[in-house]
Give the backbone structure.
Amino acid sequence: QLVEQPAIALFAELGWQTVSAMEEVFGAGGVLGRETSGEVVLAPRLRAALEKLNPRLPSEAIASAVDELTRDRSAMTLAGANREVWALFKGGVKVRVLDRERGGLKDERVRVVDWENPAANDFLLVSQMTVTGQLYTCRPDLIGFVNGLPWVVIELKKPGVPARQAFDENLTSYKHPQNGIPQLFWYSAFLIASNGTESRVGTITADWERFFEWKRIEREDEPRRVSLEVMLRGTCTPARLLDIAENFTLFSEHKSGLVKALAQNHQYLGVNNAIAATLEARKARHGRGGVFWQTQGSGKSFSMVFFAQKILRKVAGNWTFVVVTDRVELDDQIAKTFKACGAVSEAEGDACHAQSGAELRKLLSENHRYVFTLIHKFQAPEVLCDRADVIVLTDEAHRSQYDTLAMNMRSAMPKAIFLAFTGTPLIVGEERTKEVFGDYVSIYDFQQSIEDGATVPLYYENRTPELQLVNPDLNDELYELIEAAQLDDQQEARLEKELSRQYHLITRDDRLETVAKDIARHFTGRGFQGKAMVVSIDKATALRMYDKVRKHWPELDTPDMAVVVSPGQNEVEQMKKLGLDIVPHRKRMNEQALDEKFKDPDALMQTIARANRVFPGKHSGVIVDYANVFARLERALAIYATGRGGERPVRDKKALVAELRQAVAGATEFCKAHGVDLARIEGTSAEKFERAQAVEDAANCLLAPEAVKRDFLSRARLVDALYGAVKPDPVAVEFATRCGSIRALADFIRNRSDPPDISHVLQGINELLDRSIGAEPFRIKDKDRAFGGIDLSKIDFQKLAKRFEKKRPTNSDLERLRAAVKAQLERMVRLNRTRADYLEKFQALIDDYNSGSRNIEEIFRDLVALSRALTEEQERHVREHLS
């Protein structure tokens, strides 16, 4: 009563009629008009509502609709019955009526709900209504009826009793086909379990982990509150209930069966914000629908379906949605999501995939609601469709879609509205996405998703093994190898650069053995089942780790392990040279489509997000770090926590275009002064041999002397950078041909000189390093702690973000910078180089590795600051890769 009575009072405040069925009398004179306790539909109210909503239809049609809505569906699955009934709610009940004008019978639709006008419907809350099933009688606490149909079932517990008990002991048992009252749930929109302070909402197919809190009512940025009042105001206000039921529930086919999905709080608010922004973009005719950022694992694909389906139902127009991705597996994945939800039929799903620009033009000219395509199909800036009722939904837009292909895409559909869906925020350097798509229309970040239970908490544990230099004769042995290889200056310079990478520490055999042994022991010793992903630095290391982990796995346990790496040209031969066989792994990837099931872990947060998915019985995910990436993880989390302000202002595009025009003119004049006519290259067909010959002839004029070649490449880099910054603004089309010529010429010149070959000496050096560097196994330093993990959800994101704001360069930064400048100047004036002390170099690398002290980002910031202060001559050298 402490929870139930306030809830009833709130329903009354929201505009519902309320009645208690504790003392219900059956029959026509009863408070509900039921004949027996086995009835779950209030037939008198349903009949009255249908007559009100369909005044021109005869009573026979109303009676036929009532019969169809209340017929026995016990032979169907619960989800199947619910889907069938909700199709009737949304589309109306098809009936046959007498055609008085032409004679005979005709089809009509009986409206069950007035979706546009909430006040035209009948909202009734009934408390303590008994319902009898096959064997038992149950009494749900509250049932919300809409037009006599039981849409909302609410089960309550007293304060202090976990809300989960309402789910486990009541709602779950009610749904049992023999022992429960499953007929009540044929009509269900959603279920609520609450104890007053903890409240969750879900569907008839959801387990407890898929029941979610509803913490915000009007805005994404309002303070989050967890209470039954917020839940009811957010979901059961008549207008909101109709909106959620009509536009934010869907049925999805899965291997495990039919699933009914309900939008979570952030999806409901975010999609409605996106629709409002889309309507504004349509009115203003600027095409920028906005950026929809909802963190990895929080249901972004379903948000796309909710958005499209609501536009189709609620916004007038012959809408077509063009869903654009940048990878084949993503294209297939999103298309499958739309198919599984019934938004696209199987037949249409196969027919509406655009495999070329010509096919895309054809599909857009036809009557398709959805068209799926890759960004790479937009190869030319030609108009494919000038319709204004096209909405382009792009997935992970800031990865590729502000470049040349995006410019072509905007040119192809000049009147379309563009909306970007992303699981990561726009960071510095990606403001162009904002120029193309507009401002954020929804923000749901990493921290919010954990707090709401949309993703599980993540823990971080550093188990990086320490390395030791165990060969004091490393220098002498290295010198012997180098002398025996008879390297020239260029080869030795490349070797020195190659050996300065931490890659050669991370991939040492002894270290990999140590890590593999720890992975096997750590995973099998957790005490519970689960899955894990081991992310390696490259393809070869992934193959080695597969063999090593399997070798160290306990004999009695046989895990299902697989290597998932992107395919590459000549990979079989490349791996064979390293003593590795990729063929059996590639066969399994192809046979089981493993590479389609996983996204390439090319970004830290993308990789982390694999561990945060919700699953029954899963309470958290853990990131086990064997490579000291915590500093980069902190930075990624800081970026993830920002977004509501503080974004860098977007530069004035006009100034950028002026810079590009000046740079192109300068490069053109430079070429002309050295006998190169860029127009001659542009006058040849890109599909014929004449283009290649024209490029080669022009390159011969610029290859020598060395100063001319360097100057041209410097100018080409500047043109390329500015052109990339201007894209995908349609104004960039003006420069496309000339910039393409300059790039083609620069690429030819760069490729003319092959990089020094050091492969013949690297194998021997790798064997030497394997003997010279050893790894210590991971040791838990704090014996008092059972688990050395860091709870990422407890990080103070505001404080973390401040750590990465602009700051004054430190002395160590300046020292690094001074050393870099000195090294570059030495190369510029061609001073004789001396051989490095490799022993010191590798000891320094090991120290950096063990301490995690290397900070590339700080060096880059200082270099940017320095470049602004240099003279024009110095700027030219910065553009020549000063680092």
Notes: The chain has a mean pLDDT of 77. The two ends are 70 Å apart (CA to CA). The longest strand covers residues 149-156.
